[in-house]
Amino acid sequence: MALFGWDVRVYYEDTDSGGVVYYANYLRFMERARTEWMRSLGFEQDRLLAEQGILFAVRSASIDYLRPARFNDRLEVTVDIHRRGRASLTFEQAVLRHGDSAGPLCTGMIKIACIEAATFRSQPIPDTILKELVNVG
What we know:
By secondary structure, the chain is of the alpha+beta class. It has a single domain (4-136), classed as Thiol Ester Dehydrase, Chain A (Roll). The protein is built from three helices and five strands. Strands 1-3-4-5-2 form a five-stranded antiparallel β-sheet, with helices on one face. The relative contact order is 0.23. The model has no long low-confidence stretch (mean pLDDT 94).
C-alpha cells in the first residue's frame, strides 16, 4: 500500500513532567492515524459496528522509543500494512518530527484483529475491506 501519513501537534496535555511526550501517547497517535487511514478508504468504525457487527481491536503492540517528541512539535504518524492475515492486519507505524531528517522518534508494529462485536471472537475481515486493501496494496 502507499504509505499513509497523518499530522498531529503535540499539546501540553500530551507531555509528562519532563516536558516530553508521555510514552503511552505514542500509542494514541498511532491509533488515530490508523482510524484516519480507514476513514480515507471509506470505512467508519462506528458504521462497521452498526452495519456489520464488527470491531477492530489491538491484539499486540511492539513499540521502540528512539528519540523524544516535545511540546508544540508537529509530528507525522505513518501507517503501512506489514502483513495481511485472514482475520488480522499487522501495521508498521512510525512517528516523525516535521523538518527533522534524523529519522523516526518512535516506531511500532501493531497487530489488529477483526472481531465480532457480540462475542469478541475473531472473524474474517469482510471482503469489502479486503477489496480496498488490494486496491491500495
